[in-house]
Amino acid sequence: MEIISQQNIWLVPLFPFLASIILGLVLFFFPNSIKNIRQMCFFISTSFLMIAMFVSFYIFYEQITGSPIQQFFWSWIINKSITLEIGYLIDPLTSIMLILVTTIGIVVMIYSDSYMFYDQGYIRFFCYLSLFTASMLGLVISPNLIQIYIFWELVGMCSYLLIGFWFTRPSAANACQKAFITNRVGDFGLLLGILGIYWITGSFEFQSLSERFFELLSDNKINITLSSLCAIFLFLGPIAKSAQFPLHIWLPDAMEGPTPISALIHAATMVAAGIFLVARMYPFFEMLPVVMNLIAWIGAITALLGASFAMTQRDLKKGLAYSTMSQLGYMMLSLGIGSYKAALFHLITHAYSKALLFLGSGSVIHSIEPVLGYHPEKSQNISFMGGLRKHMPITATTFLFGTLSLCGIPPFACFWSKDEILTDSWFYFPFLGFLAVFTAGLTAFYMFRLYLLTFEGEFRGNLSSEYQFYSFISIWGNPLFGRNNTSLLNSEIANKKDILYPQESNNFMLLSLIILTIPTLLIGFIGGPLIFKENDFDFLSNWLRLSINSLNNIHSENLIEFLKNSISSLSIVFLGVFLAFFLYGPQISRIETTSKIDKSQFLILNSNSVFVSIYNWSYYRGYIDNFYYLIFVKGIRFIATYLFFIDQWFIDGIVNGIGILSLFGGEIMKYTEGGRISSYLFFLVFCMLFLFFLYSYI
């Protein structure tokens, strides 16, 4: 028991980091033995992370049984003017995140063994996956801003490697570069904010910098505008990492990575890092009302935009990606209005629900690829799905549970956390509450749209006129057969009629889905309202009060009051569900799907209708990507071309002109210097006479 004491919490990130090193060495020294040792590599990754999970559960148990907050530091850099330290911080927030990362990480690894089994990069994938998990765990236990920044960058590097895992596909290569560059903008702001806060408070440690800032603020010794500016710079990091508007553009493109990575990024690692940092710095942000309002409004706008863009996406994974963006906006909104507990509560419930949804989508994609081909435009396009509940009943049921949870329908997990955010938003500022409730209705609409078009109705994949051609497209986007081989393809399909419909995934993938269904159903009760009014706080609130003294419930209520206040939001949610059933329910089979298979909406709209403009605005992501491309990409290219012209014809022209002038001048002068004194005297007298006559003339 001494080995897994709280003083040894550094073992939690160490074990997955060691697994990553071991797998990297195996891949380096035995590159030709991947098929024979892949199971051993899977065992190493999973067992090492499982050890970290057991240590995390022990720390969690110690915290909920009353163990005090602990900090430990080792001196890293000692100088006369500055001392940098590394160490760990154990408090309820740390315990929550450790459990979240390790449990979801274990499930994703079990799932990935089947999903990636035939991939040539199997070992490389698990190497990256272990390093990704270790980086997030190191970030979680960090006690100061410097250590967090180091692991923050490691998380960004791992996301770059995993999003671009299939880097030979141009779309994947572009997606990882887009994510990396977008996050560089946020990380630069984060670095400026860290340096600015250190300049103001003289500390990098979370607790001491908050206390020092409070003292300076109380004594009126600091400039509140400068402090707010530093806090906004710091907030740029979470804006980019958690895909908040306007730095959200990388998130849907990140779906180019393998689906298990999409689940881990969207549930417990990269996007959760931004929420975690804002929660960790909450005592500091709370003293700056302008920054808190900014956080709230950015969260509200992000939630609304994410839901609006998700309504029309044809790609199953991109629809879930915009759903993540919207839910992260809810969390930022909650933190901005001071509802600290509700934000962390929704982080927990959303993590398990979204992991379930992404792994469910991966099960669909994995099963439908042999039917439609490996190109994402086919295998992830909900236009070519439908009716999968008949062929994949377990996947469909678990996906439905995740959908119900994310929509906020009781008694599923996200209902308790999301409705608390909606209630707190109404009490804080009614317009923010209106945006939050309206977004909840959109969430119900787009989530049931995804479910209905994927699992209900009739299977539409084999109705496509181009089915035979796309069915033989490799994962890299290159056709395995040409268009002239249609007869060959038809004969292949005729001989293999059993692959015309997708089959249920294997047991390991289904086991992962079933495991995640349990917290999706039950985890919401840890933070839900009390049945009786005898106590003011629920279990989660009482526990989180240990780590943040300023924690308060904007509106504390018991179960009956909570359910009464949720009637209005549930009405909006069920309205969204009804509209989704009306537009995309099983009755869509009445439409001629053969001729309209390419229309994911299955709606016939007048081209002059205002709905077409709204649809296009949503489908093309509000034209934000196009705007950024026009301003930044084309703008930078234009400026670069203009500067190149100036450099080539003006700067280089001046230098080259001086060189040419010197060359010709030297050529002329060499004929006047023959070494004869009489010639020099003649030239001197000639010049003097010329100047004399010129002066006389003037």
Automatic annotation (TrEMBL):
Single GO MF annotation: quinone binding
Example of a GO biological process term: electron transport coupled proton transport
Protein's cellular compartments: Plastid, Chloroplast thylakoid membrane
Catalytic activity, EC: 7.1.1.-
Catalysed reactions listed for this entry: a plastoquinone + NADPH + (n+1) H(+)(in) = a plastoquinol + NADP(+) + n H(+)(out); a plastoquinone + NADH + (n+1) H(+)(in) = a plastoquinol + NAD(+) + n H(+)(out)
Membrane topology: Multi-pass membrane protein
Gene Ontology cellular-component annotations: chloroplast thylakoid membrane
Keyword tRNA-binding: no
Span of domain NADH-Ubiquinone oxidoreductase (complex I) chain 5 N-terminal: 76-126
Main subcellular localisation: plastid
Domain NADH:ubiquinone/plastoquinone oxidoreductase chloroplast chain 5 C-terminal: from-to ranges: 489-647
Function text: NDH shuttles electrons from NAD(P)H:plastoquinone, via FMN and iron-sulfur (Fe-S) centers, to quinones in the photosynthetic chain and possibly in a chloroplast respiratory chain. The immediate electron acceptor for the enzyme in this species is believed to be plastoquinone. Couples the redox reaction to proton translocation, and thus conserves the redox energy in a proton gradient.
Family: Belongs to the complex I subunit 5 family.
Protein name: NAD(P)H-quinone oxidoreductase subunit 5, chloroplastic
Species name: Acrolejeunea sandvicensis
Organism phylogeny: Eukaryota, Viridiplantae, Streptophyta, Embryophyta, Marchantiophyta
Gene, per the UniProt record: ndhF
